[in-house]
Amino acid sequence: MHLLIPHAAPPGPACRQTMGSLQLPHLQAMLPQLSPAWSLSTDEDRLTPASELAHAKALGLPVVDGLVPWAARAAREAGLAADTGYALLTPCHWDIHTQAVFMADPAELQLSEEESRTLLAAMRPYFEEDGLQLHWLRADTWLVAGEVLRDLPTASLARVCNATVDDWIPRQDQARLLRRLQNEMQMLLYTHPVNDAREARRAPTVNAFWLSGTGTLDTGWTPPADGPVVAHDLASAALRDDASAWTTALQAFDAGPVQRALEAARQGQPVQLTLASLGHAHSFHTAPLSLWTRLRRRFSPLNATALLQTL
Q1: Which residues pair with 286 in a beta bridge?
Q2: Is 268 left (phi over 0), alpha (psi -120 to 50) or beta?
Q3: Alpha-carbon gap, residue 52 to 49, rounded angstroms
Q4: For the chain, the helix, strand and coil percentages under 3-state DSSP, each to the nearest 5
Q5: What SS3 state is found at 102?
Q6: Given this model, what pLDDT does residue 288 score?
Q7: Res. 188 pLDDT band, cuts 50 70 90
Q8: Could you tell me the pTM of the whole model?
Q9: How far apart are CA 44 and CA 261, in angstroms?
Q10: Distances 25 to 30, 32, 232, 237, 262 between C-alpha atoms, Å
Q11: Residues near 208 by Cβ (< 8 Å), separated by ≥ 6?
């Protein structure tokens, strides 16, 4: 059993302040039974945060900055052809200012399926003119297929959510058509009936898109039979620095999957735990502890919240 907790240490000040008073009894009880397995770190200017690199490592996907093929993986799961590049397309809202462009959290759009499919149908011809195919995946995420996406590094949505996008927009020559499409879509969406209706009810409009998860999937890749149990519910709260929602989600994960993993470890079953933030990831597993480690932990036990604060 492998547990992966991305966003275990959000950078926002509200979440950071909350971390010192977290109550995670099952995580606290499990840590003394685990040994370090591996660690990884990444700089804040890298396209892919450590949390996603750790997830990719757990799934046996390429751990390459900006080219973790999340979209190609989703395309394979959807039964789409795998002989081209893919990207995840996220409909989003940009606040455009003179000096910078700010992306609001796409989750705040709360797009309905009907709105999402209608917007995709309107945008599809423009993408097809440039040899790109759009596929609807869910209301907040579509797939884009095309050769230009095969080796085009892109920034994770976690890098641009509630942040400025200017430094993360791809500038390579091969991204020119994508930048042009971005401009065309802003003009198309400005007067689209879906956005007119959203404005009428004072909901944020869709005026841009973000591409991420680009790359291709090796034909020999197969998902691991015991893939990680991921604490997905932390992401949105962490990215908007909602300490209350983040704490609630983390404590729910502690009371559910972490408690089950603790019981499995006590029964001698193999357990792995990976804690990750945007910058760092540390993975632990059940393995024999040296005498020195057992003595050290008896007199100086691992503290769960202190460990999270090191991420």
Answers
A1: none
A2: left
A3: 6
A4: 45, 20, 40
A5: strand
A6: 63
A7: very high
A8: 0.90
A9: 31
A10: 9, 12, 20, 21, 10
A11: 91, 92, 93, 94, 103, 182, 185, 186, 189
CA distances from 139 to 89, 111, 113, 117, 276 (A): 11, 6, 5, 7, 27
246-259: burial string, b at 16+ Cβ within 10 Å, e else: bbebbbebbeebbb
Would you list the domain boundaries of the chain? 2-45+226-309, 70-215
Beta bridge partners, 136, equal 142
CA-to-CA dists, residue 50 to 45, 92, 158, 185, 300, angstroms: 12, 23, 11, 31, 28
Reported CATH class of domain 70-215:
alpha beta
Q: Which residues of 9-45 are buried (b: 16+ CB within 10 A; e: fewer)?
A: bbebeebeebbeebebebbbebbebbeeeeebebeee
Sheet strands (E) in 139-263 = 141-145, 163-164, 208-215, 229-230
Pseudo-torsion of CA 190, 240, 169, 219, nearest 10°?
-110
Do 101 and 163 touch, CB atoms closer than 8 A? no
For tokens 């893939």, what's the residue?
227
pLDDT tens-digit readout, 48-95? 999 999 999 999 998 899 999 999 999 999 989 878 999 999 999 999
Work out the burial of residue 264: count CB atoms within 10 Å of its CB; fewer than 13 is exposed, 13-18 middle, 19 or more buried.
Answer: middle
